[in-house]
Amino acid sequence: MIDGFLALYIFMLAAFTGYEIIARVPVILHTPLMSGSNFVHGIVLVGAMVALGRAQTPFGIAVGFLGVLLGAGNAAGGYVVTARMLQMFKASRPAGGGGEGR
Amino acid sequence: MAWLPTLVKACYFLAALLFILGLKRMSSPRTARGGIAWAGAGMLLATLATFALPGLQHRGPMLAALALGTAVAWWSGRRVAMTAMPQMVALYNGLGGGAAAAIGAVELAGFAGATVTLLDGSAFTASGVEAPGTVPLALAVLGALIGAVSFAGSLVAFAKLQGWLDRRLVFPGQRAANLLVLLAALALGAVLIGGQLALPSITAFFALALAFGLLMTLPIGGADMPVVISLYNACTGLAVALEGFVLQNEAMIIAGTVVGAAGSLLTQLMAKAMNRSLANVLFGGFAAAAGGGRAIAGSQKPIEAADAAAMMAYAERVAIVPGYGMAVAQAQHKVWELARLLRERGVKVRFAIHPVAGRMPGHMNVLLAEAGVPYDLIADMDDINPEFPVTDVALVIGANDVVNPLAKTDPASPIYGMPILDVAAAKQVIVIKRGRGTGFAGIENALFYADNARLLYGDGQAAAAELVAALKSLDG
Is residue A39 part of a domain? Predict the structure, then answer.
């Protein structure tokens, strides 16, 4: 059971973690990273599954179903586009000249 | 089976860890590709673990929704073009916001209706014997509000970038109307938090929240959409975290909060790179006609492809400045071929990338990477700007506002103060341009009239192909 101040602490620490992860990111990765973080909040799928699994009314079941559908779309779509973008960031070839990409 | 919930919790913990490690890896070019795999493993683990939760009903519909949502999103994500990535991110983000809102709706309706059993076994009943506390209700309402706004707003952003909605919807009294809708949604939310949970008021609350998301996003112009998408990404993260508190789901709390914080920072970075305050993006909008375009002295001086090619072939340093227009014209492969030919002749070629080139920060890097440009040839604005005075030729292709000197010289310009690439400082500038019109933001560009600038008119792809052909024919 998480409550009161413990919840606030989790919130604070997680917020700092997110801030720190982004703070030192090179601009070239901003788009993939935004897409990646978009994928990560696809975890909402798990919550939607729980909500649907506990729904008691037809309204709850219908909306819960919709929630799982949308959540699965967020997670799967987010994963595919992020992976596709990141696949292009291959280490630069020796022909590149600079050689800093290694 | 008492250990089962503990096992599920352990899986959630691992998933949260994998998300953070994955995001961390994604923040460096060398480890980025592995990062998404880590995060993906976390998602798979959390999803599978959830099936093991005792007491969940409706597993059939759950599996069906899961399969359907995954299949459609996977299919659409695979076939979309790289140039369309920003709107796909907006779309998937909107889905997440919608899911968060749906959780809020189910929970609120659940509090209103039948008995609800929480993970820890405590039960709420309809008659209010053990009514939900104010805090969970408030979190559910707030998360649902933010999620619904993010859902509606992201879909508008998607439609705009996709070109389905190419006009800004502006009407008199819009701000007041938006505020009114928001206040109405908040008031209804307060009623819900107060414990007056009836299905009609819940439905009305969501309708108002969705309407606010639509109304708020419709007047925002396409050029500002990246900032808006990033903002909604952060909002969805926050909504997920809030609903996570309601469901007592640690993985949702941590992942949602991390994304909320990271997304907020990313939004600020983007707004800063575009020289727009967030408030300005959300409530301002560019002055409709951009001041009517003051007259700029001088004229646009055209150049032929053969001359332009020769100019670059005999240069020592060439900087290529690509913009979104290049990507739209699918010219990046031709441009890279051009750069390779120049490099074979011993010309030092670099690609100069403005932080907001493309539709999102880093989007241009993705597009160039797709064409095979190694990233040590790609220079950020801060690296390349001091080099322009010693650059012989700057080739601008599809970029406009980010190379407009008016941002530095004309306080009346809407883009005044925006950091730009100092292309005008190069000895010669060649601008590949479709015609004589103004750019995405509708602002005249003083660069096109500069004494050292020559304009090569034509479609980006065709012009780049002409340059390549001309360069090849130089050697006979």
Answer: yes
On chain B, the residues whose CB falls within 8 A of the CB of A5 are: none
Q: Which residues of B touch A1 (CB under 8 A)?
A: 120, 248
Residues in chain B closer than 8 A to A58 (CB atoms): none
Instruction: Tell me whether residue B459 is one of the annotated catalytic residues.
Output: no
Domains of chain B: 80-287 (no CATH), 305-475 (3.40.50.1220)
Residue A80 included in any domain = yes
How many distinct structural domains can be found in chain A?
1
Q: How far apart are the CA of A11 and the nearest CA of chain B, in angstroms? A: 6
* Inter-chain CB proximity B32 and A88 less than 8 Å: no
Distance from CA of A8 to the nearest CA of B (A): 10
- As a whole number of angstroms, the distance between CA B18 and CA B40 comes to 8
Which domain covers residue A37, as residue numbers? 27-87
Nearest Cα neighbor of A7 from B161, B344, B139, B90 is: B139
Q: Kindly give the confidence (pLDDT) of every residue in chain B, 476 residues in length, as a single tens digit, with 9 standing for 90 and above.
A: 678 888 999 999 999 999 999 999 988 877 888 899 999 999 999 999 999 888 888 999 999 999 999 999 999 999 988 888 888 999 999 999 999 999 999 988 887 754 444 445 455 444 443 456 788 889 999 999 999 999 999 999 999 888 887 666 777 778 888 899 999 999 999 988 887 788 888 999 999 999 999 999 988 877 788 889 999 999 999 999 999 999 989 899 999 999 999 999 988 887 877 777 787 777 765 444 344 445 566 778 888 888 888 889 889 999 999 987 888 778 888 999 999 999 988 899 999 988 777 777 778 888 888 888 887 888 888 888 999 999 999 999 988 888 888 888 887 777 777 788 899 889 999 998 877 665 555 677 888 888 888 888 888 888 889 999 988 888 76
Pick from B287, B327, B407: nearest CA to A31: B327
Q: Hey, what are B32's tokens?
A: 């980025």
